[in-house]
Fold this sequence. Notes:
This protein is α/β, with parallel strands linked by helices and 463 residues long. The chain has helices spanning 12-24, 35-44, 61-71, 86-94, 107-137, 148-161, 177-186, 205-213, 230-233, 249-261, 287-292, 298-304, 321-332, 345-353, 359-374, 386-389, 393-398, 410-429, 433-440, 444-458; strands spanning 4-8, 28-32, 49-53, 76-81, 99-102, 167-170, 195-199, 238-242, 263-265, 272-274, 278-283, 307-310. The chain has 20 helices and twelve strands.
Amino acid sequence: MSSKVLIVDDEKLMRISLESQLKKEGYQVKSVDNAMDGLRLVKSEEYDVVVTDMRLGGMSGMDFLKEIKKFNAEIIVVIMTAYGTLEGAVLAIKEGAYDYVSKPFSTDELIIKLQRALLHKNTTAEVTRLRKEIQAEFEYYNIIGNSEAMKRVLENVKSVSGRDTTVLIQGESGTGKEKIAGAIHYHSTRRTCPFIRVSCAALNREILESELFGHEKGAFTGAVKTRRGRFELANTGSIFLDDVDDIPLDMQVKLLRVLQERTFERVGGEETLSADVRVVCATKKDLLGLVKEGRFREDLFYRLNVVPIHIPPLRERKEDISLLINYFLKKFVSQYEDALPDVSSEAMNAIVAYDWPGNVRELENVIEHAVAFSELKGISLETLPAYLRRTDVRTDLLSMDLSGRQTIHLQDVLTDVEKKLIQWAHQKTNGNQVKMAEILGIPRTTLRNRLIKLQGCSGEKDQ
Length: 463
Ligand SMILES: Nc1ncnc2c1ncn2[C@@H]1O[C@H](COP(=O)(O)OP(=O)(O)OP(=O)(O)O)[C@@H](O)[C@H]1O
Ligand SMILES: [Mg+2]
């Protein structure tokens, strides 16, 4: 769609010629000869750019500019000034005008300025949209989980966000450490400042040091110009040090100093720089264990571990699974579809029975895959990846349909199940009790006791 331009100038010839030339360039153009009419149009229609003369009858160009900005700060204003009145232009730019042209000017000159102004407007709008999208991702309502463990995690996140304390997030791969780190930043007073992420595992030692702290020109071969590090880029905001356990021991000293004194030097630099940065770290490892092994500095550990947040693996909070499935279905099902696909009970059983070594990320991928293959028919066992479909004996047992039953004799059922499993083991091992105990995952003495008990129940002979 073409951009909308409003021209405000009391010189009739100027107005007419500008309007026709800009229209030829594909702009939608209207023009008026005074600021009051201009303001009325700005308030009733949507303009991208207003091009206004500074000397107008009635309301001055400067007051007009202020009124436009008061109404909508996003409207771009380009002013036209008479030759030799540069001071007026400077004042107007201070008041929020985007640019100016001095009369007399060529249409080409104005068009170049308009194109630049519109590009700036679009970029600003895009940045605002992306920022909102990123912030929404880290809103508390987008951190899913109603298990006791996740409620506690969220409570901790809420109470720590507003403070400037260092936070250490621990959890297996895919449990949501980065999501939690983002939530802490985007709910802090630093939310409009940078949130800088550094993956300490992805970078080798030399690169990591200059990534974190920057380097001076000539500090090492290849350092052709001075470069600011992530701590400088994160200034006034937060830095997220992912896989912090991967920072080599000698660099841990430098990090400790940043945490204690908030100062550092660039690689090869002498100037001491200060960092106003909130530090959030994450690790998949047992950091205290690494301290005991001498692989992580104890003093740094205590500096980082001011507020520890542990995110439990998904297999320990399976009650979160159905909410997460719903959340991911909403994310992956096209917005044009009326309803979310059903998840069959077999599919649900297989999902719940699985151990999720890749945690929430793995579940997210499985749901995305299933949505892509479901063709609106719902999520069935067939739409799940093969490794999930391999139902184990527990799934078979747990998927019993008990809805039609009035009573169940628990002990009889358990005895029958036990007998069936022992018969299965017997068949598989030709009655070798050592092997039977092994594949059943129980000690041999336990197996022998069970066999004696079951014989008592059924009268079977020892194998
Ligand atoms: N509680 C949650 N609610 C909604 N989405 C979640 C939740 N936890 C994790 N996710 C999603 O799962 C994916 C993995 O999360 P994230 O990247 O934060 O994990 P991580 O712990 O940093 O993983 P890694 O250790 O592999 O870096 C992301 O897409 C994230 O949005
Ligand atoms: Mg991560």
